[in-house]
Amino acid sequence: MNPARFLPIVILLSTLISNAQERNLKNIKKLTFGGDNAEAYFSPNGQMLTLQVTNPEIGTQCDQIYSLNLSQPITDSKALKLISTGKGRTTCSYFMPDGKHIIYASTHHKNEACPAPPKPKDGKYLWAIYPEFDIFMADLNAKIIKQLTDSPGYDAEAVVSPDGKKIAFTSVRSGDLEIYTMNIDGSNVKQITSGLGYDGGCFFSHDSKKLVFRSSRPKTEAEIKEYKELLAENLVAPTSMEIYTCNVDGTDLKQITNLGKANWAPFFHSSDKKIIFSSNHHATRGYDFQLYMINTDGTGLKQITYESEFNAFPMFSPDGKKLVFSSNRQQSKPRETNVFIADWVEIDENEYAKTNNLKKHITYLASDELKGRLTGSKGEELAANYIVSELKKLKLKPFNGKFLHPFTYSIRLNPHDTISQGKLNKGTNVIAYLDNGAKKTIVIGAHYDHLGLNEHHHSTKMNSEGEIHNGADDNASGVAGVLELARMYSQNKSKENVNFVFALFSGEEDGLIGSKELAKTIKELYPNTIAMINMDMIGRLDDKKSLIISGVGTSPKFSDIIEKNKPAGFSVTQEMSGIGPSDHASFYLKDIPVLFFFTGTHSDYHKPSDDEDKINYYGVENVVNYVFRSINAIADLDKVEFTKTKITSDKKVPKYKVTLGIMPDYTDHGDGLHVDGVTENRPAHTAGILQGDIITKIGDCVIKEVYSYMDCLSKLNSGDEKEVIIVRNEKEMKVMVKF
């Protein structure tokens, strides 16, 4: 990334996601209307559901089991039929093999009153493990046929194997919450799991050979102590759970997820090679559960739902063609959860970014062998040859008859030299073309050059000439993104209604030289170039999952597209301007709409320490998938209108004569200027300011974001000494800075 062109104007959006692209789900239909409806599970023939309902409007004050006939018209909650006793509290119903009976857990035989739900403890959300729960079998007219369990304590969460031979359930009979199996008639009870923690919510694989379940598995002394104390009160805190599988006899236990937070409600895909589940691992704040799918070997995590803040209890129909789930989308009242059904659509695996590909590209491009990929160097040539080789593997066409597009330019190695013509240098763009026979074209680009051994003096580390600047984030990460998108678009089964130009630029660090070369002629070759998508530094997603997207104001539909396709948990800052610090600016100046994806600066920016081992591959994969979804949405537009944007969005950027020596976070957090990095031996470093600090005041000048920070700097002169107020770890501190 070229810092000289970094002039962002940011607008932070906090609107909720709506109408997001949920490509696996089509014809989504709402089945319940009001109240709290959950845990809907199919009958063996797929024609009915059992579900758990609380809805005072239909006279159900406490969780009860209802059936819903999917073959009948469904217009309101009157379509529901009560099939539990209507007394006590029930949970976790499931059809028996004959489709004429169900099993469920209930407290009615111990007390006909509804037991009270637990209250949060120390601010923690809790689940009640009611000791009165036992498992019953009933017919579809609410008649209890048989009580299947009668042991002290919790017996619930029962499910039936597809072959009709076994029931699996969770019980506390051993003193811990474990999974058990029994024969379909309730005999031959066997303990399956034995690890300390809450093992529950299990389901059988379609071949009846495996179980998938959620587990809390506390590890530290404090976690174990808390778990045992809560269990003694018949409570669990479901805030830390992962997905596990095992054979039905308990052997071959495997942890499938390692995501953190709450991963639960798992169910096997019809292939038995994937698991769909609910998770809030992505959430950076608040309550946000989305459906995800993962391979049974723990790879290939994919987000399935995007809309609303609660999606859970997914179950596939027996034929695998439908998915039923609970969600708080389309609410008529707050805190309402309804059941939805959708056609399940399998997505081409080639339409998902793969971490191993991204890692391969970044590892090579950021290796010492390429010596920092300086424009005009041997390292640049090696990088270009690698990129050409990867594009040829995908059978992409050379752009305008060739993959390599050389250019020459002059560079002043002394930034204070304003007289000489500078030194002549050569660079090479690498460009490929995917011809879909369409009338429209989209350019997808990133720069592959970096700083080499700091020969051109762009490093932020003092006296670093001769040190290799590998540029893993800047910008091997963006190149990897372009190569992966080239694979996704060229190898998928779809034929998009746009052509693609995949452009890898050189000379970016010296002033966007390579991208200017392509931008000069792109409209001559492809007059209907509707957008340019740029990825520069997408490899260092932070803990808040902050992503800046520039150019959103260059076309009227872009903002909506960016919001609809946002990955769960991401904090996306939309910057309106088409002018910015990277190659997209070259295309914006040719009246082409642009989008620029950027995960932010950091303390390794333009330093030898920008290495591959610091790349956040979860972030790169999610950004590339985000770009893919956004491009598809742009391609589907009837018209992509270009809009000029104001560089400063009516804010005049002041001139200033001093520097603090920090890299600012350009996101408007509202509580001050967040420091992304500190340059060595500059005023901030000397005063002890650290990465992560929040600057709130310089002297008497209050700082709220990047613009007020620049305004404060503009009032200072070299040699001034001011008190600077910072916030570090939520504590206010004062330091003296000599500017």
Describe this structure in words.
There is one protein chain. The chain has 739 residues and is of the alpha+beta class. 16% of the residues lie in helices and 31% in strands. The strands form nine sheets. Strands 1, 28, 29, 30, 31, 32, 33, 34, 35 and 36 form a ten-stranded mixed beta sheet that branches. Strands 37, 38, 39, 40, 41 and 42 form a six-stranded antiparallel beta sheet that branches. Strands 2-27-26-25 form a four-stranded antiparallel beta sheet, with no helix packed on it. Helix 2 (355-365) crosses helix 4 (472-491) and helix 4 crosses helix 8 (617-635). The longest helix is centred in the middle third of the chain and has 20 residues, at 472-491.
